[in-house]
Structure formats: structure tokens, C-alpha cells
Amino acid sequence: MLILVTGSGVIACSIAEELMDRHEVVLVGPDIQSASRIARLDVQLVTGLSSSVDVLHTAQIERCDVFIAASDNDETNLVACIAARRLGAKRTISILANPGFLEMNEQDRGLAESLGLDAVVRPSVQLALEILRIIRVSGALDVEDFHHGRVRLVRHIVEKGSAAENVPVRDLPLPSDVVLVMGRHGDEAFIPNGDTVFRAGDKLTAIGTKRSTRELVFDVLRAKSHGAEAHRATIVGGGDVGLRVALGLEHSGWEVKLIETNLARCKYIAEKIQGLVLHGDGSDMDLLEEEAIGRAPVLIAVTNNDEKNLLVSLLGRHLGVDRIITRADRLANEKMFEKVGIDVVRSARGAAIRRVIRELIEVDNEIIAELEHGEHEVVDLELPSQYPRVTINDLRSKLFTIVGAIFRANKVIIPTKDTVLLGGDHLLVFTSCEDASAAKELYLSPTVSNAQER
Considering the entire predicted model, what is its pTM? Predict the structure, then answer.
């Protein structure tokens, strides 16, 4: 597949880097040769304006399968997509980064259709959606939904005083439809087994139905003394992301308090949400103490400045906030923020990249989710029609991989070790990126000896 990407910023380069190993990628931009981040990319470079007919012809637009306009200028991206479509691009996708340009709501689909685009992607919208999905699951560090929401992955901390603390997994009151796919103690990641004993502060990732993962959180992972979580949140940063998160939470019945430094923006937001809007600096300790921020169970720091978000988050932790979600748009900051104790770190750029690649381009790609900054992934593998009679237990190996769910016709199966695999099954496989290729071979081509050992 030939994919043309325009722009030399972080989003454009990240998309190109994600796609270059599986596709032919051409990167187009007026200053493409001088951008330092280009050096690590194995792509063809074309210098010039992305809306120029001559430049697009040089980039082989006539045989382009997907055209992605990802420069830092929204107007340029829209014009480039229109030009690319007229010159023969089969699909066009525009990134719109400026929240003030063509206000987003249900009109985005109409905008794309009217301009002949296949999709419009807004990083701020994708980030807000990810934050809302995580917040709505009590105490979750990460949440991914699969198969139209019928299967859920949840990452959660093992709380002190919970049923999971210091008890072997085999003795835990686990829900029936759940698979523990990964545990983490500090920097050590492992696949839990019956002998595994979790300690307070460890992190557990599980796959199951929505109901079973909810039962796991409330009955096993949360402290026994932990009462019902108050649906209150403080949001620092009233930009596009902050406003969308506030509206989404209020729609779900949450009480919201929002802090913003710009007075005019405060007045605008106050007309949009029901909660309290405060004009002030979210990194002002006196303000945070006066407003009793520590009493709210959730703090969301989503200004457009990574350093300020980190400071706000650390102050919130000092004041006793239980759960902190932080925006870090520089990809290098994501791991660093988690190292210093931030619960959930997300970036608008990363959210946009995931949306473009997973949902709009590689819809048939086996990888359907990446976790923990790309160290682990969830893949969808379809078993061949002629498949030996093996069980999950027959395919045990030393690889970092485990089957979390099976999709069989219209049925969802959360497997046990005795579940028999059938040809045509779709396996939802959790694996480390390092073992992904070997895991694929293990499940798709099981050895005859494994099949006959039963």
C-alpha cells in the first residue's frame, strides 16, 4: 500500500514511522529535509507544498492508496486533501489540530463528506474520548474495549487491604469470565499463574466481559474499606480537551470543577457546563487548598503545557487526590511522568495516531491495541479452517503471551485452560511486542505433537 503523509511535525513523523515497516510511505512537506526527526525514518522524502499539483505528482499521487494530511496547519490539510482526491488518491484523511477551526460535533462527518474526505481526525477529541473511557471505570489505569464493547481490557492497581493482596491467585474469588493477562511489580512484567501472589501497589491487567471486569475491580482489586467512589472531578485546563472531558463527565452524572487561567475562556466555559468554573492558576497551591482539591477523588491535568500538567499532578498527589490523569503531549514525557507516580498519562498526538492507524488505515491489521507505551499489544488472530483439536492448555509456552478471549461466530468466549480451539475462531491474544511474531506462529500453526498430547 502506498501512503502519502504531509507535514514534518511530531504527528506526521510518528504516523510515518508506525507505517513504514508495513507499507511504502512518502513524506511530503516544504521543510521536510531540514526536520531533525526525519533522520530515523526509512521513507521517501518529497520537498514542497502538499497542495501543489507538481509536488503531488512527484510523490506519485496517482497511485496513492491513502493520503494523510498531518501538517500543523488545518487549512493546508483540508486543501491538500481536496487536491489529492482530485489527482487520484483513493482515500484521504485530514488531521485538524486547532479546536477553534470548524467547531467539532456531529458535523465532522458532514464536513468530510462535503469535501470528499474519508475522515477528519482531531487529536483533542481523541484524547478526551480516551480520558473519559478510563475515568468511567473506577480506579482504572487503562481501559480498552473490543468487539463492539462486548470484551473489555482493564488495568488496575492492587489496593492495600483488597482481596487480591498477599493471596495466591488460585485462592482469589475471581469472576468466571475473566483472564488475568499481566501483572507488574515495579518494572517487572509477568503473566500471573495460580501461584502468583500480588502485593499492594502491583498493577494487574485483565480481559473479560464488562460485567466480569467490573466485578474484578470492586470485589478483588479495591480495598475492602473502599466505599462508593464519589463522582467528582477537578479539571485543570479549560482548552478543548478540558471542556470536552467536563461535558462528558457531566453527561455521565459527575460533579465537575474546572480551573482555567484565561478569564475570557472561563466565561465561555461557564456557559457550557453546569459545574463551577474558577479563574486561576491550577498550579497555585493556595488556590488548590482553598478549593479543597484533595477531597475530589479524581484530578485531570490537561493544559497545553506538559511541565505545568506534571506540577499540577504532583501538587494534587501531595494534597491527597486518589486518582490523577495527566496530559503529556511530548511522547518522551509519558514514561517519565509515570515514573514519578502519575497514574494515567495520555497525549493528544498519541490518541490521534492510534485513531488514524488502527481504525482508519489498517482496519484488517492484527494489532488492535498497544499498551504500556508500545511494550505490549493485543492482536486478533483468525485460526485457519483446518485446525488440529487443541486446548488452550496444549499451547502453553515460555513466550509472554496468553489468550484473553475467543470470538466464535456471534459468541464471545472467555477461555479457561480446557477450552478447545476451533478453526475459524478469532483469538484475542495479549503478548509482549518482543514475542509477538513467535506467539502468532504458536497459535496459528500448533505443532502436531501438541495436538496429539491430549
Answer: 0.85
Nearest to 23 by CA among 350, 431, 380, 356: 356
- CA distances, 385 to each of 113, 191, 422, 428 (Å): 39, 29, 8, 17
Domain 139-221 bears CATH identifier 3.30.70.1450? yes
pLDDT tens digits for range 212-229? 999 999 999 998 777 667
Which CATH superfamily, name and number, covers 232-352?
NAD(P)-binding Rossmann-like Domain (3.40.50.720)
Q: Judge contact between 204 and 221, C-beta under 8 A.
A: yes
The tally of CA atoms less than 13 A away on the side-chain side of residue 211 is 4
Distance CA 88, CA 7 (A): 20
Is the CATH code 3.30.420.270 the one for domain 364-452? no
Name the residue among 445, 374, 437, 416 with its Cα closest to residue 175: 416
Which one-letter DSSP state was computed for residue 247?
H
386: Cα separation from own chain's centroid: 35
Positive or negative, the Cα torsion across 36, 42, 46, 52? negative
